[in-house]
Write a structure and sequence with these properties.
- A 5-stranded mixed beta sheet has the order 2-1-3-4-5, with helices on both faces.
- Helix 1 (3-14) runs parallel beside helix 6 (136-157).
- The chain is globular, with a radius of gyration of 15 Å.
- The protein contains 6 helices and 5 strands; from the N terminus they run αβαβαααβββα.
- It is 44% helix and 22% strand.
- It is of the alpha/beta class.
């Protein structure tokens, strides 16, 4: 099993924290990886795959005005995805991720760019991610593990 995933589940468990996800570009890969670890059911509450703008508005209440002003591939939308997921699941932590895995640029954003928001209680951490991978699926996998690495770093920081 992947030590990264084991460490995340162990830290969530030891801190008695729960997590939920809201994924667009990764299409559920983050949630799938988390639940691959024994004991994940103690900390993982669930996730949304909000691949379209309509699902972002209907499932996690991303404001249409924000989508129109900033586009779906933006820090603003990733942040709302995460914040609203915490509210929906009553979790301690939520991940929101949106981006472009290709094959063509969208919203004037290049292939291989994503925005990640991790909310821990009421603190929002925003990241712009870049993928080195070339294929659509490799880009999605790279974004998944970049997001999980950012989460692990934040969780480890709670021990200091």
């Amino acid at each position: 099993m992947n030590p990264l995933l084991n460490d995340i589940i162990a830290l969530l468990t030891s801190h008695k924290l729960t997590i939920a996800t809201c994924e667009s570009v990764t299409g559920g890969m983050i949630a799938s990886n988390l639940v691959s670890v024994d004991g994940a059911s103690k900390v993982f509450l669930g996730g949304f795959v909000t691949y379209t703008n309509e699902s972002k508005t209907k499932l996690v209440n991303v404001d249409r005005a924000t989508l129109n002003k900033h586009g779906a591939i933006s820090n603003q939308v990733a942040s709302l995805m995460a914040k609203n997921t915490i509210t929906k699941f009553h979790s301690d932590i939520a991940i929101g991720i949106t981006g472009n895995a290709g094959p063509v640029a969208q919203e004037k954003k290049p292939v291989g760019q994503a925005y990640l928001a991790i909310v821990i209680i009421d603190q929002v951490y925003l990241y712009e991610l870049q993928a080195e991978a070339k294929t659509r699926n490799e880009i999605r996998i790279e974004f998944t593990f970049q997001a999980l690495n950012k989460l692990l770093k934040l969780l480890k920081g709670m021990d200091k």
